[in-house]
Design a protein that fits this description.
- Among the domains are: 167 residues, no CATH class; 194 residues, no CATH class.
- 39% of the residues lie in helices and 9% in strands.
- By secondary structure, it is an alpha+beta fold.
- The protein is built from 30 helices and 18 strands.
- The longest helix has 21 residues.
């Protein structure tokens, strides 16, 4: 007796007959004749290797030639022919048809007579995947191709060199556009200005001027002074829905998310939900895409002594589940801004192509074929927020992150004080965030010499921000003076430098969270302040002669004022946080001797210099581990309890907001405790300790409540991706061009790798430390020291245990 479901599964897996000839030239789809929408929901189904898997990939890349789409019925075929998923003219369409059938022929052509596992197409894809995954040079790859071709004297002919293989692979790629830019960054020679020869702002030519007329005549063309590389977004988002491997995942935020009150995804928080409420037509279709934008600077040469900076702009689709969202395979490179200098506030000029496309995708949308539901829908796109470090925050938002009003959250209510001898601003005044009747508010001499009666600051409403921006002359790039906004009762300053281009998006002003504070950048600066001050590291310590003179100028802590001795030397009396040489050595030995699992962190012990009693060369993640795990243990017994307690609480604060799963009650507790922690630090450290980065910690919990878990909004995955982009630079004379070409191949191989399940790819490569137990229960016996360490770890990090009280 045959069960219908079993028969159906066998037909899907094995087909009607193993010897059946697929008539692809007559429109029969390979491996997809009986493909149903219900089956597309399961992205974990196994696809046959060789011809079937590669043919499925081709149909996902060229869906407009799928007979089931183009001729699938009156309700689907007409829309597909009109939209075509890609609207092309006849000549272009004819070229793509020929390209499609040539590749489909290579899919059917066996590598050699009798080969049933691989075809010419699959071998080329696998070889190029090996080259990129293993980092093979072009010379080695050419030798490999020559050797394989010698073995296949009677089989299919493979490309003879890396250039031919790359050209073959690029037929599947999406490409990018080159836009000429004013060498001073004032305008793009794009759209209506494409035929202009000089910049309308500064008059600079768009061509290089160093070349002589003879050189130009020999070359036959002129070289552009500066190039912006733009990777169109629409086609890349459409491919996510055309692929059977990612289409279902693009609806995870609406259909796969668990709604149990815990915060695991940005969709769980107010910024996302408020956007849905304000734009219910957009939220009605879960396939509409929500993006985050990240821009950062890096040196493409890997040599920091060279003053050169390249600015990639990347996009992150937040529709994807947590295990895919912030991964390298999901990042989309949108723009590459050429160096050698930073665009600074002129970055809006370079963002014009992206913003123009985002406006079109919001207002008009793009017809997109969804392989899961087997229908064409109008895809719309919204930009939720930007992710960047603090200096880039100012470039993108338009708010100056330097000076007296550096805090972009407090804005005009930022509390700062100029330090006469330190020559910088100090951002204290955290007593405003305490309850109105708290006794610390009246303790002037213990803090900054003033009594605190003001309430905690609130961020201006979007209408108030737009009112402030209306006072700016956005077209006058030379006007950098602060404007004053006159209100009904008072005069407040603001620090806007420009009207950001993001406000041209129709929905941008209503977003609750437009630009994120980067926890990675803030945490590193806080750790540098703490470690540098405690160990009294030169150039990093916030306690010195200038800091003591500032205390004297403010009339605070007379016991710490500098004293001139009889030998005409300046004596600084030890502060409560001053450590002896023995205490410094003990602290550094704890950090140096720590053992962590492989892959947990870098070797922090290499940064410890016992002889000099200092720590040097710590990266951002080293500071992350030091702050949250090592510092609370290393400080015990080294300093008075009054100093240790707030530092340990600060460590717990960062550990709490960096959790992958958050609870609202935990966030409320952290938000109520951080003002007390900062006020305790104000009573201990000098005013120079409180840079703007220390002050910004008080706003981190509020952003978690609006945007969700931190790991969706910090720079760690972006920085790792920038490190990977450096490997694409093969031509030092054109680093941005190398990055663009390398990214195209990486993007294509990432797409192809989803269909290569038997080969090693970025998705299925073995872990660095594979588990050999294969699910079996393993009995591990710990020595006494390891048992004690595990016991303490559980006690310090688990909420299930409460302190024992007599």
């Amino acid at each position: 007796m045959f069960i219908p479901n079993m028969v159906y599964d066998h037909l899907i897996s094995y087909g009607i007959s193993q010897s059946y000839t697929i008539w692809h030239a007559h429109g029969e789809r390979i491996g997809g004749a009986s493909y149903h929408a219900n089956d597309a929901q399961n992205n974990n189904e196994q696809i046959n290797e060789g011809s079937s898997g590669m043919a499925t990939m081709l149909h996902d890349v060229f869906p407009m030639f799928d007979p089931e789409i183009v001729e699938g019925g009156p309700e689907m075929g007409v829309d597909a022919r009109e939209a075509g998923v890609q609207n092309e003219n006849r000549q272009g369409s004819s070229e793509r048809v020929n390209k499609f059938y040539n590749m489909l022929k290579d899919v059917d052509e066996p590598l050699y007579e009798g080969c049933t596992k691989h075809t010419k197409f699959s071998v080329i894809v696998c070889l190029w995947n090996m080259k990129c995954l293993g980092g093979l040079s072009n010379s080695i790859f050419i030798e490999l191709l020559e050797f394989v071709n010698e073995l296949l004297t009677l089989g299919a002919s493979l490309p003879k060199n890396a250039y031919e293989a790359k050209k073959y692979m690029n037929e599947l790629g999406l490409g990018y556009e080159k836009i000429l830019v004013c060498p001073n960054g004032y305008m793009l020679f794009w759209k209506d200005n494409e035929n202009l020869e000089t910049c309308v702002v500064c008059g600079a030519s768009k061509w290089k001027q160093k070349e002589s007329m003879d050189d130009m005549s020999k070359k036959g063309k002129r070289s552009p002074a500066k190039i912006l590389r733009w990777f169109p977004l629409k086609t890349r988002l459409q491919r996510l829905f055309m692929s059977s491997k990612t289409s279902a995942q693009m609806k995870w935020h609406a259909m796969g998310r668990t709604n149990d009150g815990l915060l695991r995804h940005p969709a769980d928080r107010m910024a996302w939900k408020t956007f849905d409420t304000q734009h219910d037509d957009f939220a009605s279709d879960p396939r509409n895409v929500r993006l985050g934008l990240s821009a950062d600077v890096f040196n493409p040469f890997g040599n920091m002594s060279i003053s050169y900076s390249t600015w990639p702009v990347m996009l992150v689709p937040y529709n994807l589940p947590p295990w895919m969202c912030m991964k390298r395979s999901s990042f989309m490179l949108s723009l590459i801004i050429s160096g050698p200098s930073s665009p600074s506030m002129n970055i809006d000029v370079y963002l014009e192509p992206l913003i123009s496309e985002l406006k079109e995708l919001w207002e008009v949308g793009a017809p997109t074929y969804d392989i899961c539901s087997r229908e064409i829908f109008t895809m719309r796109v919204a930009l939720m927020w930007t992710i960047n470090d603090f200096p880039t925050y100012g470039d993108l938002s338009g708010w100056s992150t330097k000076g007296r009003l550096a805090c972009p959250i407090c804005m005009g209510n930022t509390r700062s004080r100029w330090l006469k001898y330190g020559k910088k601003f100090s951002y204290m005044g955290h007593r405003r965030f305490l309850p109105s009747n708290h006794r610390w508010r009246m303790m002037a001499k213990t803090f900054d010499g003033t009594r605190e009666i003001d309430p905690s600051p609130t961020m201006p409403t979007p209408d108030k921000i737009l009112e402030q921006l209306d006072d700016l002359n956005c077209n006058d790039r030379t006007d950098r003076k602060r404007k004053r906004v006159v209100g009904s009762t008072s005069v407040k300053e603001h620090s806007w430098k420009k009207c950001s281009i993001f406000f041209s998006l129709p929905y941008w002003k209503d977003n609750l969270l437009r630009h994120h504070l980067d926890v990675m950048y803030i945490e590193k600066n806080v750790v540098d302040n703490i470690v540098g001050t405690l160990l009294n590291i030169d150039t990093k310590s916030k306690d010195g002669i200038k800091a003591r003179l500032d205390l004297q100028d403010m009339g605070l802590r007379p016991q710490l004022h500098s004293v001139i001795t009889d030998a005409n030397k300046t004596y600084l009396s030890p502060a409560i946080f001053t450590m002896s040489n023995k205490e410094k050595e003990d602290l550094l030995k704890v950090i140096q001797n720590v053992k962590v699992p492989d892959g947990y962190s870098s070797n922090v012990s290499r940064c410890v210099k016992l002889q000099q009693r200092t720590i040097v060369g710590m990266k951002s993640h080293d500071c992350h581990i030091l702050m949250q795990q090592l510092l609370p243990i290393a400080l015990r017994g080294s300093l008075p309890k009054k100093v240790i307690e707030p530092l340990i609480e600060l460590s717990g604060f960062f550990r709490g907001i960096c959790s992958k799963t958050l609870r609202l009650e935990d966030l409320d507790r952290l938000e109520s405790r951080i003002p007390y922690i900062l006020c305790q630090l104000e009573m201990i450290f000098p005013p120079s300790f409180f840079t703007v980065m220390v002050h910004l910690t008080i706003h981190l919990v509020a952003e978690c409540k609006l945007g969700g878990p931190v790991h969706y909004r910090w720079m760690y995955p972006v920085e790792r991706y920038l490190h990977q982009l450096k490997f694409h630079v093969r031509n030092k004379a054109a680093p941005e061009g190398s990055i663009a070409e390398g990214y195209l191949l990486e993007e294509l191989l990432t797409f192809c790798s989803r269909y290569l399940e038997s080969a090693q790819t970025v998705f299925n490569r073995p872990s660095r430390n594979p588990d050999d137990s294969k699910g079996k229960v393993v009995d591990v016996r710990l020595d006494f020291m390891s048992w004690t360490q595990a016991h303490r770890y559980i006690l310090f990090n688990s909420d299930d245990f409460t302190p024992f009280r007599m």
